[in-house]
Amino acid sequence: MNRRRATRVPCGLFLNEISENGIVPCRATNISETGIYLRRLTGGVLLEGEVVQLELSLPGEPESLWAAGRVVEQVEETMHDAAAIEFVSLSNRDRNRLRNYVSRVRRRQLRVALDGVSRLPYAAPAQGGALFAP
């Protein structure tokens, strides 16, 4: 069952998790308008239900985006601890910036996919036949 409310796009964004213990560097592997999947590059485990503060930079944006998020899933991976984070607090301005970023990435993915389809060889239907059989 897919619990996601928004479409995710792949990314390789670096970000900071900020807590009373300091700054923990992280890397996001995908992002949506409502959340992010990140891997902690150092530090301990994030616990489900924990609220974290995040600072990330979107490509082409001069200012950082700030968000508070709740850990909805904690994943122990081989090299790093990872977590799915649902955004619980994001300014309207930052939410719009994030929405625009996700839309740009989705449009780029679509262009690449359509370009790949347009390069496929075309097979004309047989004389008097249909392209697809019933």
CATH class: Mainly Beta
Mean pLDDT: 84
Residue share in helices? 10-25%
Approximate shape = globular
The CATH superfamily name is predicted glycosyltransferase like domains
Cross-sheet strand order for the largest sheet: 2-3-4-7-6-5
H/E element sequence: EEEEEEEH
**CATH architecture assignment:** Beta Barrel
Pairing-aware structural class of the strands and helices?
alpha+beta
For this structure, the CATH topology is: Thrombin, subunit H
Structural Rg: 20 Å
**Strand share of the residues?**
35-45%
pLDDT < 50 stretches: none
State the end-to-end CA separation.
33 Å
| Count of runs of 4 or more consecutive helical residues | 1
Give the biggest sheet.
Answer: 6 strands, antiparallel, barrel
The structural domain count equals: 1
Assembly state of the chains shown = single chain
Would you report the number of β strands? Answer: 7
List the helices and strands and how they pair.
Elements: E1 9-10, E2 14-19, E3 22-31, E4 35-40, E5 51-56, E6 65-76, E7 81-90, H1 92-118
Antiparallel strand pairs: 1-3, 2-3, 2-5, 3-4, 4-7, 5-6, 6-7
